[in-house]
Amino acid sequence: MGLLGAFPNNRILTGKNRVRTGLTVCTCVLLSVLRTQMAFAAPVENTKEPLVVVDPGHGTPDPGAVRANVYEKDINLKVSTELAELLAKRGFQVCMTRMGDHDFADPQDEKRGRRHRTDLVNRLAVIQHADGDAVISVHCNWSRNPSAEGAIVLFQPGNDEGARLAEQIYRSLHQANIKASAFPSASSIYLLKRTKEPCVLVELGFMSNNKEAGLLTDPLYQKRMASAIERGVSSYLEPHPSNSEPTPIPKYRAFTEWVMERVRSALGHSQPAKHGGVHVCPGPDDRTD
Ligand SMILES: [Zn+2]
């Protein structure tokens, strides 16, 4: 059911207007019954510059959404890599949950359902071990409604910092003339629900939409999308007056001025370092590509 396709362009849906999105958000992240708990190792050493964790969804053998010979996992990785490199140039610390084409399932989990489960459990462990200042999980969407289109920035209800991060990414996408919406997830999305850090899941667009499927595989559009997300993340981590200009977006409680002041105060810096670096997030098992 193409619920999202009925949404007007470029707007944030408030809690009152939230709509269940379970049928359109890729099913990989909709596991609602997981109860497994992980024992997490100590977080990585805290340093001055904010750390951004970029999580490209899926990875072989899990392709995510598939359209002809186009796999969601590959689009996610390309846009995530562009995003991570841009963030690193901006001066942030950046790590990616994966820089190669693999998922996080345990090798012995051959059954598809269990692979999904352990992928998410292990992926979450890496994200939580990184203990980032912002977490961006990158996916592509799919709907049975072929007219559904647009990027969607999802955050967990109750995660106010995640809401602020989502707002900034939404604003940046809007300013880049990329059709987008942002709203609290009404579904139980595993990573969003369990990540305490400011976390969003960005659905880049609908692979089920002819036009958008073409855009998502266009390297120029991928760079444009990554750049817009990067500006949104940067605005969240380094609020500037020019980026805080109000745009015609409905306000809700998460986007209050005291949050803005708290972020400015907590970060306590205005000039990022000259260079950052992208690396694989050192998870509890020190997995590397
Ligand atoms: Zn996905």
What is the topological layout?
Blueprint: E1 11-12, E2 51-56, E3 66-67, E4 70-71, H1 72-90, E5 93-96, H2 112-130, E6 134-141, E7 151-155, H3 160-175, E8 180-184, H4 190-194, E9 199-206, H5 210-216, H6 219-237, H7 257-267, E10 277-280
Parallel strand pairs: 1-8, 2-5, 2-6, 5-10, 6-9, 7-8
Antiparallel strand pairs: 3-4, 7-9
Helix pairs in contact: 1-6, 3-6
Bound molecules: zinc ion (ZN).
Offer a few descriptive terms.
10 strands, binds zinc ion, 8-stranded mixed β-sheet, Aminopeptidase, disordered N terminus, 7 helices, two-stranded antiparallel ribbon, 289 residues, alpha/beta
Mean pLDDT: 78
Task: Please give the order of strands in the largest beta sheet.
Answer: 1-8-7-9-6-2-5-10
CATH architecture classification name: 3-Layer(aba) Sandwich
Quantity of strands, as a count: 10
> Could you say which overall geometry the principal axes of the C-alpha atoms support?
globular
What is the number of helices?
Answer: 7
Just give the CATH class. Alpha Beta
Structural classification: alpha/beta
- C-alpha Rg (nearest Å): 18 Å
Q: What's the helical proportion of residues?
A: 25-40%
Look at the structure and name the CATH superfamily: Zn-dependent exopeptidases
CATH topology label: Aminopeptidase
Main sheet specs: 8 strands, mixed
Number of domains: 1
Bound molecule kinds, no repeats: zinc ion
Distance between the termini: 38 Å
Low-confidence stretches: 1-25, 27-42, 242-275
User: How much of the sequence is in beta strands?
Assistant: 15-25%
